[in-house]
Design brief:
about 130 residues, seven-stranded mixed beta sheet, about 0% helix
Length: about 130
């Protein structure tokens, strides 16, 4: 069983930056593609970004391309989401997720998580 714990969320003003972290335990993330989803109030959970097991390929939702950057440190068993130029519409609970590398990851839609974190709140004020 893998446990994912997010941190780094908070309340910021529009235009600010935040860096979310996801610490994994129980299993090594080298055997998993990793990613982030978010869920805004009253909306469904949506894909934000994913990164393959080696870090060589990344995928982003159109809404965050050029604004967010996903990265991973397999040695530290951690994944990160750098969020720049934050907007009020980025307000959501952000979830870290892991998908077994037994399934290929060549498009964003192929990122189907096996494990989820509990989420961290990001609130962007205008």
């Amino acid at each position: 069983q893998m446990r994912l714990v997010e941190s780094g969320g908070g309340l910021v003003q529009a235009g600010a930056s935040l860096r979310l972290s996801c610490a994994a335990s129980g299993r090594t993330i080298v055997f998993y593609h990793m990613g982030w989803f978010r869920q805004a109030p009253g909306k469904e959970r949506e894909f934000v970004a994913a990164i393959n097991w080696s870090g060589g390929r990344t995928y982003y939702a159109e809404a965050v391309k050029g604004q967010f950057t996903i990265s991973r440190d397999n040695a530290k068993n951690a994944v990160f989401l750098q969020m720049n130029s934050l907007k009020p519409e980025d307000t959501a609970v952000y979830y870290c997720a892991a998908a077994d590398t037994a399934r290929k990851l060549t498009t964003a839609s192929e990122f189907l998580p096996d494990y989820w974190g509990q989420g961290t709140q990001v609130t962007v004020s205008s």
